[in-house]
Each structure stands twice: as structure tokens, then as C-alpha cells.
Amino acid sequence: MQPRAVRLVQLSRVRYAELLALQERWLRRLQPEPGTEALSGTEAGALLLCEPAGPVYTAGLRGGLTPEEAARLRALGAEVRATGRGGLATFHGPGQLLCHPVLDLRRLGLRLRTHVAALEACAVRLCELRGLSGARARPPPYTGVRCGRHITSHGLALNCSTDLTWFEHIVPCGLVGTGVTSLSEELQRHVTVDEVIPLFLEAFKETYKCSLISEDSPN
């Protein structure tokens, strides 16, 4: 059987708001209203990749930031945004690879938990390809997922050369007593987002058993 295709949309450095807007457009495309464009029968969605252009703290559906905390974070020079994902507050910024697959799980033959495990496996596989054999995914319930009508936009953020001091101002994802690291920190050299993208794509195709169709410009 021919593998399902996933559109690859690489955005380079963009504001976090642009990523969210593109994500919403792909969600609508996977859940089309009458008379709007739908995906072809062989496509399962899109993989959106970018590096945040500036520092931003995000809070999921469970909140995690009071108005006073949000004001304190903005005073540091960061954006603060509410998002539709699960989970608590976290940080995104330059030096970080953001991966947002917007997928119809039915077309890929995946259950939600299997999808989450597969996305985590991509990050672990990437670490292995960079020589970090000790990387492991956390077990449930340490994940926050957004899914509706079998369409998921659950993503991940991989710290490549991120300034980790930004995480010191929050409890990342509500995980008390858990540290944050990066590929640069673990490998003791500067690792760029551009360096790891090919490895992540290799891991994604391997894990999801899909093909990737490059797209020059966002739809």
C-alpha cells in the first residue's frame, strides 16, 4: 500500500502568532465547510516547522498563568499568549524547533495515544541520530493534546540552542522539580535549528511511515 502523504511547510523564523494562524488554516482545511478546498484522498495533513522569531510564553487550556504572572513575563520582554492546546505554561523562542503536525488521524490509521507516542518517538529518534542514546519520552500524563473530530494539532518543541534562562521564570508545563535542557547543552556545542531539521524529517517519515511533500508557500 502506498504510504499516506503529509505536506511539509517550513516557515524559517516567524512570529508565534503566524504559526498559530497557519495552524488554524490547516485545521479548517482538514475540516472543510461545503464549497471550500479539501485535501486530496492521499493526503493526511501537514507538518508545520518553524523557529520562533522572538520569546513567547504560552498557556494551554488548563491555564497556568495568572494576570499578575503574565504581566511579570511581559515585563521581561516576552509575548504571552493563550493557546488551544492542552497542558500548562511553557516557553518558545529563538533556537527552538517548533513542529506542529496538523493531521487527520483516520487517514494515517492512528489512535490519539499512538500519535502522541509517535511524535515523542520522533524527538527521541532525532536525539539518537545526534548521538544522545539516553533520550527518553516521559510517560502519561505528561502530555497536553489538542484533538477534535480525529483532527489533531498536538505539537512539540525541541530546544536546539535556546536560551534556557527563559524557563527559569515559570514552572515549565507544570512539571515541578524537572529541569530543561537543549541539544547544545547536552552535546556541548552550538546546535542550530537548521542542523536538526533534516534529522527530524527522517525520524518523522520513519515513525509515521508516510511520505513528505514539500510546499514552497503556506496555503
From TrEMBL:
Annotated compartments: Mitochondrion
Main location as per UniProt: mitochondrion
Sorted UniProt keywords: Acyltransferase, Mitochondrion, Transferase
Domain BPL/LPL catalytic positions: 41-212
Enzyme class of the recorded protein, top EC level: transferase
A Pfam family matched in the record: LplA-B_cat
UniProt xrefs under PROSITE patterns: BPL_LPL_CATALYTIC
Catalysed conversion reaction: octanoyl-[ACP] + L-lysyl-[protein] = N(6)-octanoyl-L-lysyl-[protein] + holo-[ACP] + H(+)
SUPFAM superfamilies: Class II aaRS and biotin synthetases
EC number(s) stated in the UniProt entry for this protein: 2.3.1.181
Task of the protein: Catalyzes the transfer of endogenously produced octanoic acid from octanoyl-acyl-carrier-protein onto the lipoyl domains of lipoate-dependent enzymes. Lipoyl-ACP can also act as a substrate although octanoyl-ACP is likely to be the physiological substrate.
Database matches in PANTHER family: LIPOYLTRANSFERASE 2, MITOCHONDRIAL-RELATED (PTHR10993:SF7), OCTANOYLTRANSFERASE (PTHR10993)
Entry's family note: Belongs to the LipB family.
NCBIfam families: lipB
Name of the protein in question: Octanoyl-[acyl-carrier-protein]:protein N-octanoyltransferase LIPT2, mitochondrial
Species this protein is from: Equus przewalskii (Przewalski's horse)
